[in-house]
Write a structure and sequence with these properties.
The protein is of the alpha/beta class. It has three domains: 1-194, 3-Layer(aba) Sandwich (Rossmann fold), CATH 3.40.50; 195-285 and 486-510; 288-481, no CATH class. It is 27% helix and 23% strand. It contains 13 helices and 20 strands. The strands form four sheets. It has a nine-stranded mixed beta sheet with strand order 10-20-11-19-12-18-17-14-13. Helix 4 (125-137) links the parallel strand 4 (108-112) and strand 5 (143-147). Helix 2 (53-64) crosses helix 6 (175-190), helix 7 (217-226) packs antiparallel against helix 8 (262-277) and helix 9 (290-302) crosses helix 10 (328-335). It is globular and about 70 Å long. Bound molecules: zinc ion.
Length: 510
């Protein structure tokens, strides 16, 4: 008999950690969100939550599928950033440990996790947290986590949990749906279901730009995986992984969870991994050189008959831990005299503050990156007019990755550099939909060329302005460049394709 009102603990750290980005400390308060107990619950049931979709999707589904006693413990959301300062992480972990111990006995545990966290001293904090929960609750209590498909999955993460339920869309428009799926699985496990899992990690580090799910090899792998889901096969998850974590757990991961049938889990897992491995060369990126990006933008500014162009600055994606403030494209487009360009969003708190101080209509010498230390984010200056100001708060577009949430860019300014208009923001994040421009009076639909600082999540919200063939990915330096040769990887297991083009793999002998 399942408990009348099962007690479900909820806790987790949602973080995608890049070893190449500056470490994240507790003092960087603009960069993270922490919700404990009641605050976590209030957010999860709010009309526009700030926490990740898995969390509120899980809570809402549990609310409508029967009685339960939620025990929200603590949730820390660091987004995508550098490694978490280890001392801070330990304090958060220990608070979670105490919270979970105090909550005992519980009937289940849910983690709204990302799965690619690192700290300055621990390469698998996700696995450590799952194992910590397992040690406290014991082997019989279900532990379920939702994961981003950019998770770097460790053996420990798989072994310590009963189900890892991974997003199947990139842009991630199914976060709350996966939370709901996790809740349905929790109900089944509370009623007595025991799962069996199989796990394979390929020595394949797919560049982030080749992990889209609308089309391409990753899309096909996920779609084929879903054809295997039936009565016995409960969940098929495929994590493309997060390249810049640079850990031994980097590599495309396949997790198949069945209702008690280990052999079936292994057979499906093996088949999926073999299919992907046999077409691994399809994951190599196709980027456009800076010169070609500039040439096309200049041509677009001159000839209104050409289709509008969207240039994705994939190497400077704050959604992957980059700074959102490199100037390679900005400087080159400005120098070339490109017209009708809208570029956003550029993170520069002092510049946004200065524009607010000067007021709309003011002209001034704009100094970009005056307070930045990251060497890839060089200073740049140009004459600018302040043509728009906003508080940067607006609802995410219904068709974009920020749907259902309130976006908060902090004080925001539109600066006209003469031909190139830049949207400057205060709170670092990637550009997810046209609202990131229109909130400050810039219309991307009227621009001849739009430059977005995002790797791929912008695609959902900008699809109404640009067909996929109007989008190009720029090959410029940056902390999230898909050009993997430009990074000094030290933590990954070698050989690893495509760093090692001759890397080999054969399926496990289960
Ligand atoms: Zn992701």
């Amino acid at each position: 008999m399942p408990p009348a009102s099962p007690r479900i603990a909820i806790l987790g750290i949602h973080h995608e950690g890049s070893r190449f980005a500056p470490p994240l400390t507790e003092a960087d308060t603009r960069e993270w969100l922490r919700l404990d107990g009641d605050a976590m619950w209030a957010d999860a049931i709010a009309a526009k939550p700030r926490s990740v979709g898995g969390l509120w999707g899980f809570v809402r589904a549990m609310n409508v599928t029967g009685p339960w006693t939620p025990i929200p413990i603590a949730y820390l959301d660091c987004g995508a950033a550098g490694a978490i300062d280890h001392g801070w992480y330990v304090r958060v972990r220990e608070a979670m440990r105490e919270g979970l111990k105090k909550a005992m006995p519980v009937d289940g545990v849910y983690f709204p996790q990302h799965g690619a966290s690192i700290t300055t001293a621990e390469l698998d904090p996700d696995g450590e947290l799952f194992q910590m929960a397992r040690d406290i609750v014991g082997p019989g209590v279900p532990i379920i986590a939702t994961l981003d498909l950019h998770a770097n999955v460790s053996d420990r993460m798989v072994e310590a949990t009963d189900l890892l339920c991974v997003y199947r869309t990139n842009p991630h428009t199914d976060q709350s749906a996966r939370g709901r799926e996790a809740a349905m699985a929790m109900r089944e496990m509370l009623a007595g279901l025991k799962t069996e899992k199989a796990f394979i990690r390929l020595p394949l580090m797919a560049p982030q730009v080749s992990q889209l799910t609308a089309a391409g090899p990753y899309a096909e792998a996920i779609a084929y995986g879903q054809t295997k889901v039936e009565e016995t096969v409960m969940n098929v998850s495929i994590c493309g992984g997060f390249t810049y974590g640079d850990t031994p757990d980097n590599g495309m991961a396949f997790i198949v969870t069945t209702r008690g049938d280990r052999g079936r889990a292994q057979a499906v897992c093996k088949e999926l991994a073999e299919r992907v491995w046999s077409c691994r060369e399809r994951f190599l990126p196709r980027l456009t050189s800076l010169e070609e990006c500039v040439r096309r933008a200049v041509a677009n500014g001159r000839d209104a008959a050409l289709p509008a162009l969207c240039i994705a600055d994939v190497a400077d994606n704050p959604g992957g831990g980059a700074r959102g403030n490199t100037t390679w494209l900005l400087e080159a487009l400005h120098a070339a005299g490109a017209k009708g360009v809208a570029l956003g969003v550029f993170t520069d708190p002092p510049l946004a503050a200065e524009a607010h101080r000067l007021g709309k209509g003011a002209t001034f010498e704009a100094h970009f990156n005056r307070a930045e230390n990251e060497p890839r984010s060089r200073p740049f200056q140009a004459r600018a007019a302040v043509i728009g100001l906003s508080d940067g708060v607006f609802p995410g577009a219904v068709d974009g990755t920020a749907a259902g949430t309130m976006v908060d860019l902090g004080p925001t300014a539109a600066l006209d550099l003469g031909g190139v208009t830049v949207v400057v923001i205060t709170r670092r994040q990637q550009c997810l939909d046209p609202g990131y421009f229109t909130n400050v009076g810039v219309d991307p639909a009227a621009a001849r060329t739009v430059v977005v600082k995002s790797r791929g999540h912008f695609r959902a919200g900008f699809l109404r302005l640009f067909r996929p063939d109007q989008v190009i990915e720029a090959d410029v330096p940056g902390l999230t460049s898909p050009n993997l040769d430009s990074f000094d990887f030290r933590g990954v297991r070698r050989p690893l394709y495509p760093l090692d083009m001759d890397a080999g793999w054969s399926p496990p002998n289960w």
